[in-house]
Design brief:
Distance between the termini of chain B: 41 Å
Shape of chain A: globular
Radius of gyration of chain B: 14 Å
Strand content of chain B: over 45%
Largest sheet of chain B: 6 strands, mixed
Structural class of chain B: mainly beta
Helix content of chain A: under 10%
Largest interface: A-B, 27 and 29 residues
Structural class of chain A: mainly beta
Number of helices of chain A: 0
Oligomer: heterodimer
Order of helices and strands of chain B: EEEEEEEEEEE
């Protein structure tokens, strides 16, 4: 199993550009999520999905869109990049959603370092 | 929504000493409390977790305690080793409006000096 695969690893954008961060998992996990990591602020939840066709907003959803058309894939779209979106982005998945008394261990991708100029 | 506060932000210990990291949470409905370790340049990895129906859980040199009444939980690392140096994150999750959401604390940078 490859686990959670994120692409690209690095990306530089200009303000106003759009792009999609790709995330795929091969563990048949129902739950997938996107976090951004900024110094001193921990990991902040952007969007999450508890199954194919179901998505919801996290703590910091503004400026980002997601979709979950298949169990395996959960892409994150930046609609119009802003310097405030410069961050490290992590995709993470688990068999069960957090707090559901199942298998909730999150498996993280390797991260995408995004710079918006 | 849930709010998780983590202290201290940095912690420096000598090899062999114990380290304690504390977190508080705001949502009394939260029922799942994991801890993640992130080494420099790497992805976070789960090291231990605890549910709200358990007061303490131990795994070798690592233990977590939970006080539901006070809404705080702590990570204890005994006999620290240089390879324990990393950033540690606590998190909380629960039902109701927080279903599916895992809220992380701000992180603690632990440095273990040989």
């Amino acid at each position: 199993n490859a686990g959670v695969t994120q692409t690209p690893k690095f990306q530089v954008l200009k303000t106003g550009q759009s792009m999609t961060l790709q995330c795929a998992q091969d563990m048949n996990h129902e739950y997938m999520s996107w976090y951004r990591q900024d110094p001193g602020m921990g990991l902040r939840l952007i969007h999450y999905s508890v199954g194919a066709g179901i998505t919801d907003q996290g703590e910091v959803p503004n400026g980002y869109n997601v979709s979950r058309s298949t169990t395996e894939d959960f892409p994150l779209r930046l609609l119009s990049a802003a310097p405030s979106q410069t961050s490290v982005y992590f995709c993470a998945s688990s068999y069960s959603p957090p707090g559901t008394v199942g298998s909730e261990k999150l498996f993280f991708g390797s991260g995408t370092q995004l710079s918006v100029l | 929504g849930e709010n998780v506060e983590q202290h201290p932000s940095t912690l420096s210990v000598q090899e062999g000493d114990s380290a304690v990291i504390k977190c508080t949470y705001s949502d009394s409905a939260s029922n799942y409390f994991p801890w993640y370790k992130q080494e420099l340049g790497k992805r976070p990895q789960l090291i231990i977790d605890i549910r709200s129906n358990v007061g303490e859980k131990k795994d070798q040199r690592i233990a977590v305690t939970l006080n539901k009444t006070a809404k705080h939980f702590s990570l204890h690392i005994t006999e620290t080793q240089p390879e324990d140096s990393a950033v540690y994150f606590c998190a909380a999750s629960g039902g109701g409006t927080s279903y599916g959401k895992l809220t992380f604390g701000q992180g603690t940078i632990l440095t273990v000096h040989p």
